[in-house]
Amino acid sequence: DAGITQSPRHKVTETGTPVTLRCHQTENHRYMYWYRQDPGHGLRLIHYSYGVKDTDKGEVSDGYSVSRSKTEDFLLTLESATSSQTSVYFCAISEGQVNTEAFFGQGTRLTVV
Amino acid sequence: KNQVEQSPQSLIILEGKNCTLQCNYTVSPFSNLRWYKQDTGRGPVSLTIMTFSENTKSNGRYTATLDADTKQSSLHITASQLSDSASYICVVSSDYGGSQGNLIFGKGTKLSVKP
User: Fold this and answer.
1) Is the CB of residue A112 less than 8 Å from the CB of residue A30?
2) Rounded distance, CA B8 to CA B20, Å?
3) Percent residues over pLDDT 90 in chain B
4) What is the rounded CA–CA span in Å between residue A93 and residue A4?
5) Which residue among A45, A90, A105 places its CB closest to the CB of B101?
6) B67 and B73 in contact (C-beta within 8 Å)?
């Protein structure tokens, strides 16, 4: 596996609580992404980063925020978790945006009760 | 909106048999097409990447084809093994994907290989 670590791997949280997921890479790749994977959908982009402190919204960004203070870390925060945010979250990294390989983390299974 | 459609949704085959998975896409502008394998509980892992000018690419027992004119791709698995049981995801990369991002994902085909 490429050097990507997601933490935690599993989390159960209550509706209305804040939650932060962490993605850590050791590859020094410029681009980092957060996706969610739900039954009946392909992976959908939440937010991505193209450098330290440089982030942009994806297709399903409502209710999520991100931060990237270091090249190696990309944090995804659910400000106030809702049941609709129950999902499997994947972090991905790539050197470039289009014609380079993308590597995925192992995923974080989040359940909001 | 850019879209990637895969068929079938699921497939069951016997060990040792061959199978072919299909992918149709409406993504513009097109940059490349990728096939990923996703084992249960794990992240997707790349099998092949094909650009516009490539129409076949192999990775061991996996062979992907691309017809850029008809916007179709297939993934052929030869002499299947139990370890091939996974979801196979077709992904099209675009120079401009908007809020979808540069990678447009299909929903995947879930393959089960039975002994």
Assistant:
1) no
2) 9
3) 86
4) 8
5) A45
6) yes
Per-residue tokens: A21? 């997921």
Q: How far is CA B80 from CA A38, B10, B49, B66, in A?
A: 27, 15, 21, 21
Chain A's closest residue to B37, CA to CA, is: A104
Q: What is the CA radius of gyration of chain B?
A: 14
Interface of A with B in 8-67 (CB under 8 A): 33, 40-45, 48, 57-59, 61
Q: Does the pLDDT at position A46 exceed 80? A: yes
Give per-residue pLDDT as tens, A49-83: 999 999 999 999 999 999 999 999 999 999 999 99
Question: Which pLDDT value is given to residue A1?
Answer: 56
